[in-house]
Design goal:
This protein is an alpha+beta fold. The protein has helices at about 20-25, 50-55; strands at about 1-5, 25-30. The two termini are about 15 Å apart.
Length: about 80
C-alpha cells in the first residue's frame, strides 16, 4: 500500500482560517487493499496518516493519539487487521 499526502498549502501564509485552502490536504492511497472511489473531503486529517499506517500493519496506536485510521478507504479482507 502506498499513501501520498502533503500538508495544505495555505493561503497568504495563514494556517488558521476556515478557507478551503487552509483546511484540505491531498490524500491518495494505492494498493491491493484500497477501496476504489473518493473519500468525503472532511474525512482525513494530516495526523490520520500515521494512524492509518499502523492500522494497515495490524499495530494498535497509542491511546493518547487523537488521530483515527482512515479504515473506510480499505477493504478489511486485505488489511492486517
Amino acid at each position: 500500500t502506498l499513501i501520498v499526502t502533503a500538508d495544505h498549502g495555505g493561503q497568504d501564509h495563514d494556517h488558521g482560517s476556515d478557507h478551503d485552502l487552509d483546511m484540505h490536504i491531498p490524500w491518495i492511497a494505492w494498493g491491493r487493499a484500497v477501496q476504489p472511489g473518493e473519500l468525503p473531503s472532511d474525512s482525513v486529517r494530516t495526523t490520520d496518516t500515521a494512524s492509518t499506517v499502523l492500522y494497515l500493519l495490524g499495530v494498535y496506536q497509542p491511546v493518547t493519539w487523537a488521530a483515527k485510521p482512515v479504515s473506510t478507504a480499505f477493504t478489511a479482507a486485505n488489511t492486517a487487521q
